[in-house]
Amino acid sequence: MPLVEFKKICKSFKTGGKETVICDNYDLAVEKGELVAIMGKSGCGKTTILNMIAGIEPIDSGEYIFDGVPVKIRTASDGVKFRRNKIGIILQHFALINDYNVYENVELGLWESGLGEKEIRHRTHEMLESLGIADLRDKYPNKLSGGEKQRVAIGRALVCRPALLLADEPTGALDAETEAEIVALIKKLNKETNTTMIIVTHDKEVADNCSRIITLDKH
Ligand SMILES: Nc1ncnc2c1ncn2[C@@H]1O[C@H](COP(=O)(O)OP(=O)(O)OP(=O)(O)O)[C@@H](O)[C@H]1O
Ligand SMILES: [Mg+2]
């Protein structure tokens, strides 16, 4: 059974009398444990599709099934509930909290987990170790390199052990060498934790490191 399944999904934006069709009867299935890349030209709808999977962007019609259960999201709070402890998200520009140190930024991913303090400390520490940033735990984001920031963002997304990781251009702001490190890290975490991962990327090298590439056409 796929973790993420779209059946005949339709989505378009209407602004000022102009309609932008993102998908028309679009089918998608991502199996558990897969590391999938989504590629396609700028504006073809990659971020919109990721946001529909995350329950952030409403779907016009069709069926969205997550882990065998139909997803029905009507309000923003339905979306929050749907994502909680199930979906981790990382973005191109890290979106770290500057007033929090590395430890606190990762721990943030467990605020809604319902776990006790001791388990939260344990899991956060374990995550920092597996990302190779335990020695940076007291540093603040403005003192970190791009690659280090992205490790923290990955930690925050994965510390609650979500079934699904969504990443929108996670290496877009990094140089080639740091990008290769982050891709290797994502691959390692995919193997070790069996977390299903969907990564939007412009970069063929990043995509070639994934187990499957989905290319979206421009409508
Ligand atoms: N909220 C919105 N309202 C109206 N149009 C939108 C909205 N969000 C996105 N679009 C349009 O939908 C299309 C797809 O946008 P999207 O951000 O999904 O593309 P993308 O493939 O992620 O592009 P990029 O590679 O540049 O990030 C674009 O034409 C965009 O202008
Ligand atoms: Mg985008």
Q: What are the segments in which pLDDT stays under 50 over at least 5 consecutive residues?
A: none
Note the main sheet: 5 strands, parallel
As an assembly, this protein is single chain
Structural shape = globular
H-E string: EEEHEEHEHHHEHEHE
CATH topology of the domain at 32-47 and 80-215: Rossmann fold
Q: What's the CATH C level of the domain at 32-47 and 80-215?
A: Alpha Beta
Give the % helix. 25-40%
Percentage of β-strand residues: 25-35%
Count of discrete alpha- or pi-helical segments spanning 4 or more residues: 7
Side-by-side strand order of the widest sheet: 6-7-8-3-9
Terminal CA distance: 29 Å
Report the count of strand segments.
Answer: 9
Ligand inventory reads: adenosine-5'-triphosphate, magnesium ion
CATH arch. level architecture of the domain at 32-47 and 80-215? 3-Layer(aba) Sandwich
Mean pLDDT: 94
Structural class: alpha/beta
CATH superfamily of the domain at 32-47 and 80-215: P-loop containing nucleotide triphosphate hydrolases
Our Rg estimate from Cα atoms comes to 17 Å
Secondary structure: elements and pairs:
Blueprint: E1 4-15, E2 18-30, E3 35-39, H1 46-53, E4 61-66, E5 69-70, H2 76-83, E6 87-91, H3 102-107, H4 117-130, H5 146-158, E7 164-168, H6 176-193, E8 196-200, H7 204-208, E9 212-215
Parallel strand pairs: 3-8, 3-9, 6-7, 7-8
Antiparallel strand pairs: 1-2, 1-4, 4-5
Helix pairs in contact: 5-6
The structure holds adenosine-5'-triphosphate and magnesium ion (MG).
